[in-house]
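Support request, please re-run this one:
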Amino acid sequence: MTNFSLDEKSFALAFIAARSFMHLYSQKDQLSCLNSVIEHLRPGGLFIIDVYSPNLEILSQSHSTKFRLRKSYVLPNGHRVRHKTRFVENDFLNQISKWEILFEEFDMNGNLLGSKKVPMDTRYIFRFELQLLLEKVGFEIISIFSDYQKRIYDGKGEIIVVSRKPE
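Re-run finished. Output below.
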């Protein structure tokens, strides 16, 4: 993601979805990724990136001992999975938010079959920092949204930036 070179260098659209960009923990890696993206777009090509907007209330919390249910779903075999998260800590200096994700699988009678705990660290990024990184590698910002319904960015939810490689 930080350094790629494809034979094709004239894509009309590129995107980084599902907050994947937030797994790059340094600005050096972020800039390297964005430089690789812009090199693969044709002039006028669009680039869309999705990250979450940092929630200062959550970031200022202390370590959480309890997992919070995020979603529950049923597998094709009828087993139920509960997806839970808990906040572990915030590294303000490096803008790293540390979480744990817990997946629990239950049979059709509600008996716990197993669980898996996974660490999930992300480097949060603020709107203007993201905008500066994009502009630094040469992108022109077209729009910034808070969600996929194209609600104008208001500091909450997602930060979805639509940008363009200059003509």
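The chain has a mean pLDDT of 96. The radius of gyration is 19 Å.
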